[in-house]
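Cont'd.
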Amino acid sequence: MPTVVMKVNGTNVSHDVPANTLLVSFLRETLGLTGTHVGCDTSQCGACIVHVNGESIKSCSILAAQLDGADVTTIEGIANGDELHPMQQAFHENHGLQCGFCTPGMVMSAIELVAKNQNLSEREIREGLEGNICRCTGYHNIVKSVQDAAGKMHSA
Amino acid sequence: MYSTKYVKASDVDDAVKALKLANDGKFLAGGMTLIPTLKQRLANPDCLIDLSDCGLSSIDNEGIGIRIGAMTRHVDVATSAMVQKVIPAVAYLAAHIGDRQVRNRGTIGGSLANNDPAACYPAALLALGGTVHTQNRSIPAEDYFDGMFDTALEEDEIIQVVSLPKPEKAAYVKFPNPASRYAMVGVFVAKFADGVRVAVTGAGEDGVFRASELEALLDTDFSADVIADGMVSSDGLMSDIHASADYRAHLIGEMTRRAVNACA
């Protein structure tokens, strides 16, 4: 059984897990971090998106063993204490969620999108969130939330 | 997913050794096809051999074009200033594969080794007349593709580098399926001093192919106007729930016109 050593949300973790353990299972079942969701299980919906070494990836499509030594951030790791991340705050203020199931993945995907791109147009935001599906079809307010957060993240 | 073993190879020799020790080992690149396949229990390898530490990620200018290491991710090709300058069509192609998360993991070598009939990179390799370099030999694009999901690669052969010659002009245009975003038809047009090459992905029953009739027309006049509606035959094209062979034939003509215009 491979030993997986990672930093998750700033904390070093080490666990022996079967080689076929997906990162999302490692996060949810081994570490109890259930904010990262499993939506489709076919790599399409993006509810499982987390950051690995600062880049967004679908945690349902990668083995924990592949990421031995990596720095992983989940939705639980982005707020600063009680202060929400600007992206979370923007989703809150713009009603960027309905059922909320896709939200963790949307937020994690959007944070990377905004961090790597200045002056995103609405179209670029929609294209940038191509890997995320909202089953409530609540895209309009999700895009508004990302636009709002982008302004705050880049002015900060 | 069935249970399996996992090995992170330290170099190509180490990976080949691990494959020989396994009964039914599989090389793992970015895993954007392999891991979902394993999750569906469509494959049951007893060992996964991860190539990510084999030193195969690189982008170099080789004079006549670019050389891209097999484990170079789509995001790295898409954002490479060198690729954008030398063959911008390849950077564009890489920037439109899958979604951002797929591009953060998926690799050129994985895409070419898998040879999905709707993958984008095979069209670039074939249209540019590129070469696949393994630890054993160099395989020209013409000899590399061997039908859907099949290539000239031997079981233990690992792509190390892909070389892509620089054309005078090139463009890639695809018509993505509205839901899956896979190419229903993707056309890579490359104009070289000695002729035009047109490669089509997403449409052929045997995977990627060259549209030789369109090439001949574009050789005489490199203009979108030479391609008329109804000119492309539907022989040998896929028909499925997404598109009939006739519709795909139409898309090949239209995507070729758009690609020629995008070359300007």
